[in-house]
């Protein structure tokens, strides 16, 4: 194929697309539900929301599902660049069913070297729920991470002042206390813990003693050991969101989350998403009104900090086999 400038454009063959999808599926997702489907037809790759994996009690609007799919979309673009390919993305294509979130064409006009370090980064990224150390993330690092959100049409703000952090902690704990009494949510969470299959969260990845000094975890205690004594207070929180609270904005925020997370991992930082305060609408509005200085709709919160040196590697969360998520 030749473009308008007379340069020959090469479409990615099916084998390359399949490899990209497998790397995209390493993306983080709510409860590790992996709520995406991929279809490849006539050189066009389509990302679809797998509504069978939506969490009706915790995520009735599909915000977290769409954020997860946005992360997978960014992972795919990141992997393509690392393998020397270019991507053209049409988000929420006109005339497509509501479940179609993006159409992507993978091609190249020149050959580029493979960035093996970036491929390793995709495989290294994980959610480490163990306590952070007391060493604070420098403000310039936080600023750099927040600026990355703008590259994807999203908004970000680091919550750094003592007053704002205290207010956010109160709101987060209030939200979790509210959610703890909703039986449908608790049953839904339990269905995704220790499933023993290719999805969900293994029990060994949940801390056995949630830290009472920080916003509580949504999950029941697990078996992940944390015997290292640390002084708390080194973590910071970044709020991610957009100008709207709709599918298009959520998709962009998911892409920004993935970009920020990968760059934090590259710098040796750890990231843990915290969506509970956003899932309670009254708390979400309070965060926007009383915590954030910028005016945007928060879609999720990210805890960012440093993990202690010398900790053993975490086991990897399982992934659905490619045959379950990809139609070639």
UniProtKB/TrEMBL annotation:
Q: Write out the GO MF terms.
A: oxidoreductase activity
Cited SUPFAM superfamilies: FMN-dependent nitroreductase-like
**Source species, domain of life:** Bacteria
Looking up NCBIfam families in the UniProt record yields: Rv3131_FMN_oxido (NF047509)
Name used for this protein in its record: Nitroreductase
Whose protein is this, by species? Nocardioides kongjuensis
